[in-house]
């Protein structure tokens, strides 16, 4: 076989390998998305916005905790509670304006959002308890699991309940 034919064949094989690798890499997000509940997949843009706000809310809560304890020499539980309240108010305002903007904001939505956030906190604590006390595993594994599950749980409840847009009759 001539040298040019061998190099042409190798070039074709390399191109095919790159194409297969590219298509399998592109398929990876699709495979990961299948693990998400349908409501999250159907509103992926909103879920991403929710996640961005969640990161800022977490930084606000953690920052409040550290400032309260380290600068004010206060009790960590009080600092964490204050951080939770500030984070809740910030994330409600941001989500009602950016993520769930079609439904507007109201006192009713704030109460529902607070209920969902408290349910998420309880779910987080339940997951930590399960990993740490029941299974005897490192609590960090529980927190990592909670970081994945609680935002999905909260997004679904907020989308379907707290910020649900009422359906108009006759349309």
UniProtKB/TrEMBL annotation:
It is a multi-pass membrane protein. Its main location: membrane. Residues 49-163 form the GtrA/DPMS transmembrane domain. It is found in: Membrane. The chain crosses the membrane at residues 47-69, 81-98, 110-131, 137-157. InterPro entries: GtrA_CellWall_Glycosyl (IPR051401), GtrA_DPMS_TM (IPR007267). It comes from the Bacteria. Keywords: Membrane, Transmembrane, Transmembrane helix. The keyword Heme does not apply. The keyword Transferase does not apply. Belongs to the GtrA family. PANTHER family: PROPHAGE BACTOPRENOL-LINKED GLUCOSE TRANSLOCASE HOMOLOG. This is GtrA family protein.
């Amino acid at each position: 076989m001539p040298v040019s034919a061998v190099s042409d064949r190798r070039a074709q094989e390399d191109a095919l390998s790159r194409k297969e690798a590219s298509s399998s890499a592109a398929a990876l997000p699709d495979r990961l998305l299948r693990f998400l509940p349908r409501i999250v997949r159907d509103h992926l843009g909103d879920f991403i916005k929710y996640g961005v706000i969640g990161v800022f809310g977490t930084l606000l809560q953690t920052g409040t905790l550290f400032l309260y304890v380290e600068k004010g020499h206060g009790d960590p539980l009080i600092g964490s509670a204050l951080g939770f309240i500030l984070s809740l108010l910030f994330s409600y305002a941001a989500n009602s304006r950016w993520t769930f903007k079609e439904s507007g904001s109201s006192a009713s939505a704030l109460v529902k959002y607070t209920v969902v956030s408290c349910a998420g906190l309880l779910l987080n604590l339940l997951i930590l308890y399960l990993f740490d006390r029941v299974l005897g595993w490192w609590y960090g594994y529980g927190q990592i699991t909670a970081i994945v599950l609680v935002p999905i749980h909260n997004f679904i409840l907020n989308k379907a309940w707290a910020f649900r847009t009422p359906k108009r009759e006759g349309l």
